[in-house]
């Protein structure tokens, strides 16, 4: 190995594999610690690096009209190992990128093993890294081993690390029908106008409520996987369909209670129930449905939620779910270089930072690897602009999202600063998406030049 001190990467999944590759390609030696096969998880089956634990899809590959496709584009442009190996082992899947998982993982492993600046050590890191590891990337994923999770929690505080995500569906603001919904906080509470109008309310009459409950009770649900429920999740985050099964009025006295609200579209009519949505990002482009975590299957979820008045044409930035997932309260804990504020030698990447999905996790690995390598070489590399897919994600998790309600996030156009010139509507949406991706590609190319210059200057 070279005279430059190594970066230690903990976890050889999507994020850790990409981070190790990027740092090594920038000329910095890496020691990659992966606990499998010595210690396993309930979801991984192999000892391969970058194992895909469930579906074999990297989702849409459309880099002109889709935010995930754009993220693919940015990772390819950035010399991403995970994307290169996914492309090399792609399976026919229409507009999506499906991957032949075992050859893909074997190829990522072989590339990392063959890199002259990378050493792979097998075994669990079961405590905080020793003090002489001066640059560490923790990429241990949603199933971080309990011992390491506890150690990280000890560094932060009780509420800093979560073991289950309870995700309420998130809706694009511009798809909400404001002729039915209205802005108002319960009892008009709040010091400022913004606080008094912090919620969007969707009213239901009795017939609509009863039909909604019937649909909820009949909807298909996803099951927990074996081993997934070894940590209790039921405090304060019951799925709505479970609440409905406990009694037809449970939701009306819970997240759908109609009190303290007056519908300006029909002031004389008291709603029988009200669904509330709350702003989910600082830009105000995304709203989450308050208290609506659910295990309904995605198809059923879309159908049932579109029964809510005002959400008939809702476009979902992400659907709800409840899963085993270890993740940090990143908006509070991490700076924009993905460093733990309380201990900056520790940087985080992947799903543990509160992004969700193979592609998003690998993308955060790419960023962490490049930023850590630049730092090792005496340079400061800022994250990409927020107009790019990677930049918008990193901005969301490290500050754009509300820390109090933070839940994992997929990349989506709702995270991007709006384009002023292009207006709404279905036709407008396609134009807008193309506008986002054109702007992102130009800005990401600029950032890559900066990133490469920062490595070359040393
Ligand atoms: C059951 C399940 C199903 C999922 N299905 C999908 C899906 O279909 N599609 C999708 O996009 N995403 C899915 N995800 C999310 C998926 O895990 C992430 O998208 C992606 O794998 C996260 O990448 P990562 O690198 O952050 O974590 P991982 O890929 O999980 O990698 C983390 C690595 O760290 C290792 N590790 C953990 N603790 C330690 C330690 N203390 N010391 C050393 N090594 C350690 C693990 O063995 C693992 O190899 C699923 C997650 C789970 C749990």
Automatic annotation (TrEMBL):
| One BP term from GO | tRNA wobble uridine modification
- E.C. numbers: 2.1.1.74
Question: Which parts of the sequence belong to the MnmG N-terminal domain?
Answer: 7-379
Q: Which PANTHER family match?
A: GLUCOSE INHIBITED DIVISION PROTEIN A, METHYLENETETRAHYDROFOLATE--TRNA-(URACIL-5-)-METHYLTRANSFERASE TRMFO
Q: Which residues form a coiled coil?
A: none
* Compartments where found: Cytoplasm
In the record, what terms sit under GO molecular function?
A: flavin adenine dinucleotide binding; tRNA (uracil(54)-C5)-methyltransferase activity, 5,10-methylenetetrahydrofolate-dependent
Q: Which gene encodes it?
A: trmFO
Q: Which GO terms describe its cellular component?
A: cytosol
Q: Where does FAD bind?
A: 11-16
Q: Of which family is this protein a member?
A: Belongs to the MnmG family. TrmFO subfamily.
Instruction: Say which species the protein is native to.
Output: Amaricoccus solimangrovi
Please give the Pfam families that the UniProt record associates with this protein.
GIDA
The family database entries (HAMAP family) matched by this protein are listed as: TrmFO
What is the official name of this protein in its record?
Methylenetetrahydrofolate--tRNA-(uracil-5-)-methyltransferase TrmFO
What cofactor is this protein dependent on? FAD
């Amino acid at each position: 190995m070279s005279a430059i001190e190594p970066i230690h990467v903990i976890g050889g999944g999507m994020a850790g594999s990409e981070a190790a590759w990027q740092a090594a390609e920038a000329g910095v030696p890496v020691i990659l610690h992966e606990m499998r096969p010595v210690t396993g998880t309930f979801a991984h089956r192999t000892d391969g690096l970058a194992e895909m634990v469930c579906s074999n899809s990297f989702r849409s590959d459309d880099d002109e009209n889709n935010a995930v496709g754009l993220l693919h584009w940015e990772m390819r442009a950035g010399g991403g190992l995970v994307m290169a190996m996914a492309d090399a082992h792609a399976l026919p899947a229409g507009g999506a990128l499906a991957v032949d998982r075992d050859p893909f993982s074997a190829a990522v492993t072989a590339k990392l093993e063959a890199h002259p600046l990378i050493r792979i050590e097998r075994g669990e890191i079961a405590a905080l890294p020793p003090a002489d590891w001066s640059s560490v990337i923790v990429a241990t994923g949603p199933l971080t081993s309990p011992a390491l999770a506890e150690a990280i929690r000890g560094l932060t505080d009780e509420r800093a690390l979560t073991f289950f995500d309870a995700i309420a569906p998130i809706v694009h603001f511009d798809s909400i029908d404001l002729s039915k919904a209205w802005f108002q906080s319960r009892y008009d509470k709040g010091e400022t106008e913004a606080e008094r109008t912090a919620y969007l309310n969707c009213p239901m009459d009795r017939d609509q409520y009863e039909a909604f409950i019937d649909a909820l009770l009949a909807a298909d649900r996803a099951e927990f996987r074996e081993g997934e429920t070894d940590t209790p999740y039921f405090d304060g985050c019951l799925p709505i369909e479970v609440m409905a099964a406990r009694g037809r009025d449970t939701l009306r006295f819970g997240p759908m209670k109609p009190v303290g609200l007056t519908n300006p579209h029909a002031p004389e009519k008291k709603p029988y129930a009200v669904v509330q949505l709350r702003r989910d990002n600082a830009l105000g482009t995304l709203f989450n449905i308050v208290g609506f975590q659910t295990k309904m299957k995605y198809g059923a979820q879309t159908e049932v939620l579109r029964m809510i008045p005002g959400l008939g044409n809702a476009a979902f930035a992400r659907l709800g779910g409840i899963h085993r997932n270890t993740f940090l309260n990143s908006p509070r804990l991490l700076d924009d270089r993905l460093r733990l504020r309380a201990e900056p030698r520790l940087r985080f990447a992947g799903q543990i930072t509160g992004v969700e999905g193979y592609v998003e996790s690998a993308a955060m690995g790419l960023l962490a690897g490049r930023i850590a390598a630049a730092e090792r070489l005496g340079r400061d590399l800022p994250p990409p602009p927020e107009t790019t897919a990677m930049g918008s994600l990193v901005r969301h998790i490290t500050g754009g999202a509300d820390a109090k309600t933070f839940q994992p996030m997929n990349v989506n156009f709702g995270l991007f600063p709006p384009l002023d010139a292009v207006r709404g509507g279905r036709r407008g949406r396609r134009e807008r998406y193309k506008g986002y991706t054109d702007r992102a590609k130009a800005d990401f190319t600029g950032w890559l030049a900066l990133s490469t210059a920062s490595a070359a200057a040393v």
